[in-house]
Amino acid sequence: MNHQRTKGELLYGRQPIIECLRAKRRTMYELHILSTAKPSSMLDEILAEVRKKKIPMKQCNRRQLDDLTSDANHQGVVLRVSEYPYLSLTDLINFLRKREDDSLVLILDHIEDPQNVGSLLRAADAAGVDAVVLPAKRAAGITPATVKASAGAAEHVKVCLATSFIDCIKTLKKEGLRLAGLEADNSETYTQTDLTGPLALIVGSEGKGMSQKVRENCDTLLKIPMSGKVSSLNAAQAGVITLFEMQRQRNSK
């Protein structure tokens, strides 16, 4: 068996694969393409990059692609690539120290749904977040499903996988970042709080919110006022809204 065909992981979907090719952060091993795939501008770009990089290509039928991706929405293309290039905490700190502008970091406190993580990564990329921190355990990582949910944005965002989550948060605080956590109760309204300067936004997990240890390290707690009958937004929605308020404040300085 060809070892290159068994290592790494399988990205699927045209936009995620295009972004992976554009980002140039992973090693590409092989493209699996539906033999009856209809031409499109996105598919043309994928094929042009694959040929340029001399990546092996294999024609497949739909059943074969469905089997490769466990019936995910692959849109006729699957790319086998190396594993996601996470940053270590040391890498993250060195990167932030080299920045000339105020750093903005997004911290996800044990969010388990890849769709939510993907949505937040997509917003992080759009809102100019410098890096995202994920716990190494009991949380969704950057899987092919997460990359698909992020529309490929995960391929461009710097993500630190924290083996010691609380130590990572404390280290960022020592580096001069204020920690602002999203919390429904006893909090400041997010639009009335200064969200400029070196800052880390913490979004808690689905249902439970931030853990007590994480909350204790926060400098500021933020809330999004609710006017409807439903008492709260989900983790991804709240995080996205707050990220763009941060971007608005920073751009208006």
Question: What name goes with the CATH superfamily of the largest domain?
Answer: SPOUT methyltransferase, trefoil knot domain
Q: How is the main sheet built?
A: 7 strands, parallel
- In the residues, how many domains can be counted? 2
Rg of Cα set: 20 Å
Helix/strand class: alpha/beta
Secondary structure: helix percent: 25-40%
| CATH architectural grouping of the largest domain | 3-Layer(aba) Sandwich
CATH class of the largest domain: Alpha Beta
Which of globular, elongated, flat, extended, rod-shaped describes the shape?
elongated
CATH topology of the largest domain: Alpha/beta knot
Calculate the terminal CA-CA distance, rounded to whole Å.
58 Å
Q: Can you write the helix and strand succession as a string?
A: EHEHEHEHEHEHEHEEEHEH
- What order do the strands of the largest sheet run in, or round the barrel if closed? 7-6-5-10-8-11-9
What's the number of helices? 9
Report the β-strand fraction as a percent range: 15-25%
Could you report the average pLDDT, rounded to the nearest whole number?
Answer: 91
What does this structure look like?
By secondary structure, the protein is of the alpha/beta class. It folds into two domains: 3-81, 60s Ribosomal Protein L30, Chain: A (2-Layer Sandwich); 89-251, Alpha/beta knot, CATH 3.40.1280.10. Helix content is 36%, strand content 20%. The protein has nine helices and eleven strands. It has helices at 14-23, 41-52, 62-68, 89-98, 114-126, 144-149, 165-174, 212-216, 235-251; strands at 9-12, 28-34, 57-60, 77-81, 104-108, 131-135, 159-162, 178-182, 188-189, 199-203, 220-223. The chain has a seven-stranded parallel β-sheet, sandwiched between helices. The protein has a four-stranded mixed β-sheet with strand order 1-4-2-3. Helix 1 (14-23) packs parallel to helix 2 (41-52) and helix 5 (114-126) runs parallel beside helix 9 (235-251). The longest helix is centred in the C-terminal third of the chain and has 17 residues, at 235-251. The protein is elongated and about 55 Å long.
